[in-house]
Every structure is written in C-alpha cells, then in structure tokens.
Write a structure and sequence with these properties.
The complex is a heterodimer of chains A (116) and B (115). Chain A is an all-beta fold and 116 residues long. Chain A is built from no helices and twelve strands. In chain B, strand 4 (31-37) and strand 5 form a beta hairpin. Chain B is globular and about 40 Å long. The chains are: A mainly beta (116), B mainly beta (115).
C-alpha cells in the first residue's frame, strides 16, 4: 500500500534560520510527490511538486524540496525562515493505482512554528 | 484558494439532519474531489469525480452522497447516517485530462459542527 509519513508533529525554528520539514514515502514505481501549506481555517495551498528530473524542486514563497530516491524522502526546506511561514504543512503522494483516480494520499501534517 | 469557492464557511447541523456543502470552480477542471480533515489525521478522500455525471467513492464515503450534474459544481451532502460528521471539509479540483501529475487546487473549506 502506498503511504506518506511526516515523522514530526511540530517543528520549531527561529526566524532567519534554515528550516526542514520531513517527509518519507512508500510507493511502487516512481512517486509523484507534492507539498501543500495550510493556514488556520483555510484551504490547502500548493507549494511544489516532484514528477521527474532534477531532484531539487523549487516552489512558491522560497520553499524547495529535495527528492531522495535511496532514502525515499522528500523533505521541504527553506534557507531562511519567516514568522509568516508558521502554518501546517502536508506532504502527499499521488495514488498510482490502476484506476488512475488522481487521488492524493496525505501525511498527517507537520506544524511549523517560526519564532521571532 | 484560486477559482474554487465553498459555501458556507461555517455550518451547524442538528442530529438527524442532512446538510449540503457547496463547491464551485471556474477553472474548467474536469476532476473534482471532496476530502475530510480531522486534527492529526491529514486529509481523507470522501468522493471524487473525473467527469460530469460520473463519480466514485473514496476511502470514507459512508454517510455521504454527491452529484456532478455540471462541470463546475460538485456538492456534498452529509446525511444523518454519518455518525461523526464534525470536521473541516475541503473540495479540490484538477486540470483537464487524467494525468497523475496534475496538481489539485483546494477551496477554502467548510467547517461543519454537529450540535
């Protein structure tokens, strides 16, 4: 079964420091991986995705993610955190079952807290 | 949140009532999805539709129903058979075609509370 794990419920970082939000996956074949961010009582906003090609994917708001096939990871990173980055972050993988539903399988989410 | 709207933003339901959540998109997307979000559990798929007049059950469809009579609309009804409906409901849509690489875009959500 395909799955996504976000091992940290919460990540705390000081403003200006680099941040990493971790994601590992378990899929058959090549994964299609996504990162979304959610602010309180709002919908999810798309940040970036990995389909193929360069292992370092750049996305919105200065975020990037590194695809590592050997470690089955897709960690989200940002060189310098902002207080406004504080939010709930979701990693997701596309369900590649035979029905090709387009369904996303989500991790449980990681709360990022950036302190001034 | 793009061109996807959900209404109402907050909804209160009494025991035994059916309620309908609205989802409309003006992005010309073929596929639409309904997810349920509970604290600490991520998002779970309720129903999805890849084309007008067609839809399929997701992982937690029991107690829910949908329709897809128009391309831009995918309403979700939470029936009295849903035993624990209090949650945040998110609608999403994806571009034309059925590519696995397509990005899903989400609406702002509806928070449903059972009184």
């Amino acid at each position: 079964a395909q799955s996504v794990a976000q091992p940290e419920d919460q990540v705390n970082v000081a403003e200006g420091n680099p941040l990493t939000v971790k994601c590992t996956y378990s899929v058959s074949g090549n994964p299609y991986l996504f990162w979304y961010v959610q602010y309180p009582n709002r919908g999810l906003q798309f940040l970036l995705k990995y389909i193929t090609g360069d292992n370092l994917v750049k996305g919105s708001y200065g975020f990037e993610a590194e695809f590592n096939k050997s470690q089955t990871s897709f960690h989200l990173k940002k060189p310098s955190a902002l207080v406004s980055d504080s939010a709930l972050y979701f990693c997701a993988v596309r369900d590649k079952g035979s029905s090709n539903t387009g369904k996303l399988i989500f991790g449980q989410g990681t709360t990022l807290q950036v302190k001034p | 949140d793009g061109g996807i709207t959900q209404s109402p933003k907050y909804l209160f339901r009494k025991e035994g009532q059916n309620v309908t959540l609205s989802c409309e998109q003006n992005l010309n997307h073929d596929a639409m999805y309904w997810y349920r979000q509970d604290p600490g559990q991520g998002l779970r798929l309720i129903y999805y539709s890849q084309i007008v007049n067609d839809f399929q059950k997701g992982d937690i469809a029991e107690g829910y129903s949908v329709s897809r009579e128009k391309k831009e609309s995918f309403p979700l009804t939470v029936t009295s058979a849903q035993k624990n409906p209090t949650a945040f409901y998110l609608c999403a849509s994806a571009p034309p075609g059925r590519k696995s690489t397509d990005t899903q875009y989400f609406g702002p959500g509806t928070r449903l509370t059972v009184l």
